[in-house]
Specification:
Blueprint (H helix, E strand, L loop, with lengths): L1 E2 L20 E5 L2 E4 L7 E10 L1 E2 L2 E2 L7 E10 L2 E8 L3 H9 L30 E5 L2 E5 L6 E3 L6 E4 L16 E2 L6 E8 L3 E8 L5 E9 L9 E2 L3 E6 L2 E3 L1 H5 L9 E3 L5 E7 L5 E7 L3 E10 L5 E8 L3 H10 L11 E8 L4 E9 L3 E5 L11 E6 L13 E6 L4 E6 L4 E3 L3 E4 L7 E9 L4 E8 L9 E4 L9 E6 L1
Antiparallel strand pairs: 1-6, 2-8, 3-35, 4-7, 4-36, 5-6, 7-8, 9-10, 10-11, 11-12, 13-14, 14-15, 15-16, 17-18, 18-21, 19-20, 21-22, 23-24, 24-25, 25-26, 27-28, 28-29, 29-30, 31-33, 32-33, 33-34, 34-35
């Protein structure tokens, strides 16, 4: 933990996280400009760390903040917004005590070191969301998700999806097959051994199949790729100082060692029976997020991801981010990778966006299928420094190899761009992003025509209070 410094910052993005977020109940959102598209009907959900301090103490890492969910409902009678913290048991206990009580990713359980041994970590519920027919799940990495009401975002409680025994982790990055509705996910558990747990769920979210695969070490695997036949994982060359983490000598974050000599492992599983198809190794790199993947006519898997040359730089930047003062420059770029799924051998790699970017997204109807467009958060030209945050969103067109960019203007910062399909015209799409305006210290929802990202937004909606920078969201069509 660090002590919050009561000083102004020169960078406007830090205003969004300077204070804990303020909840608001269901509220009609005013139209600032433009017009709400007639066939944009459904809900935008976003999740992210909304409280980064308690009692004057700051979190140790951006990943440690308490999760809060934004819901923006687009209906025939207008647009309403609601914003609520996920009422985890740990959030309620810390609110009552008005101080930190638990360790998370970048911070220890407070108190003497012997009190840290075997202490449970806080469920931060702060990373992503999964919209199911009867509930919304607030997802993170390390334990079960929390279920919320789809409309009001009232917290219902922990959810085991029918099969997450012993509080098994359920990752933030599920994949939903657009044709079958099946949902695939994973989680890494640490016990007598390190296991990669694989899950297949039906359309309701209930787990109908699971498998466990023993890993030779702990490494961060935050995301994976779904194709027509496979689940594809890349395990970066990270090793964990397990004993020092378990004894509380180091935080979880501090215990992760970058060891490039190990290479990046490639693990490919059959999506039908969750069995291992192949296992290989490639060059050392790190990645948080994939955009998409599919199988080409010759059987090759083609995928894209934001790739880093190492882990320490991106992890340090994310630690600094929570303080409102960043100095490290993580050089994440969008890459396309081809591999042979029968041998797990990487056959080709190509950098496709040579600018700092993150949060690659494709439209939901193309997950696991051939696709043309990947959307990203992007650094505007000339601002690629550690002191700035993403100030643009963009679309990369693989057919024409062109990048179309929406630069939001000075001191405006978008969230991950989310694609929403038009309910009347399948050829029409919209891109939604939550924008923090550092000029006016306010937050807005901007809607773009997906084919005209470089034009003015078709609509801007005002939000009642500032929404801190968030991680991931989803579009739930009506």
């Amino acid at each position: 933990m660090h002590t919050i410094e009561k000083k102004s910052t020169t960078k406007a993005w830090a205003g969004a996280i300077a204070e804990p977020a303020k909840e608001f109940p269901s509220t009609q959102l005013p139209i600032i400009s433009g017009k709400i598209p007639d066939a944009l009907r459904g809900t935008l959900y976003r999740n992210g760390p909304a409280r980064l301090e308690r009692g004057g103490d700051g979190v140790g890492h951006w990943f440690d903040g308490d999760g809060a969910i934004l819901g923006v409902h687009f209906t025939d009678s207008g647009v309403t917004g609601v914003y609520r913290y996920v009422q985890t048991a740990e959030y309620q206990a810390e609110t009552k005590a008005d101080k930190f009580l638990y360790g998370v990713y970048g911070m220890h359980t407070p108190g003497p070191i012997w009190k840290r041994w075997g202490q449970k970590i806080k469920n931060a519920a702060n990373t992503s969301v999964l919209a199911l027919p009867d509930k919304l799940l607030a997802l993170w990495e390390a334990t079960n998700p929390y279920a919320l009401d789809l409309e009001t975002l009232e917290t219902k409680g922990l959810d085991d999806l029918g099969a997450l025994d012993n509080n098994l982790p359920y990752s933030a990055h599920y994949k939903r097959d657009p044709d079958t509705g099946e949902i695939f996910n994973f989680g890494i558990s640490i016990g007598s051994s390190v296991q990669l747990n694989l899950y297949k769920s039906d359309v309701t979210g209930k787990i109908i199949q699971k498998a466990a695969f023993k890993l030779d070490r702990y490494s961060i695997m935050h995301d994976f790729v779904l194709t027509q036949r496979y689940l594809v994982f890349f395990m970066p060359p990270i090793r964990m100082k397990m004993l020092s983490a378990m004894l509380g000598v180091t935080t979880f974050s501090e215990s992760l060692l970058w060891e490039p000599q190990l290479g990046t492992q490639v693990l490919i599983f059959d999506r039908e029976n969750l069995s291992l198809v192949s296992r290989g190794e490639t060059d050392p790199w790190f990645n948080w997020h994939f955009g998409n993947g599919y199988e080409d006519e010759d059987g090759s898997v083609i995928l894209d991801m934001v790739r880093y040359s190492d882990f320490p730089q991106t992890n340090e930047y994310l630690r600094e981010f929570a303080t409102g003062q960043t100095h490290t420059v993580p050089k994440g770029r969008l890459w396309q990778v081809s591999l042979n799924p029968q041998t797990a051998k990487v056959t080709a790699t190509q950098e496709v966006i040579n600018r700092r970017c993150e949060f690659p997204v494709v439209q939901q109807s193309q997950v696991g299928q051939p696709w043309r467009y990947t959307y990203v958060s992007l650094m505007p030209q000339g601002t690629d420094t550690g002191k700035e945050s993403f100030g643009a969103i963009a679309r990369f067109d693989y057919k024409t190899e062109t990048l179309t960019e929406a630069d939001l203007g000075e001191n405006r910062y978008p969230s991950e761009p989310i694609h929403a399909q038009d309910t009347q015209n399948p050829e029409q799409g919209w891109v939604l992003t939550v924008v923090y305006d550092g000029n006016s210290h306010s937050s807005e929802v901007w809607v773009f025509d997906s084919d005209r990202l470089d034009a003015e937004p078709v609509c801007k909606l005002g939000l009642p209070s500032v929404i801190p920078h968030s991680f991931h969201g989803t579009w739930n069509p009506a």
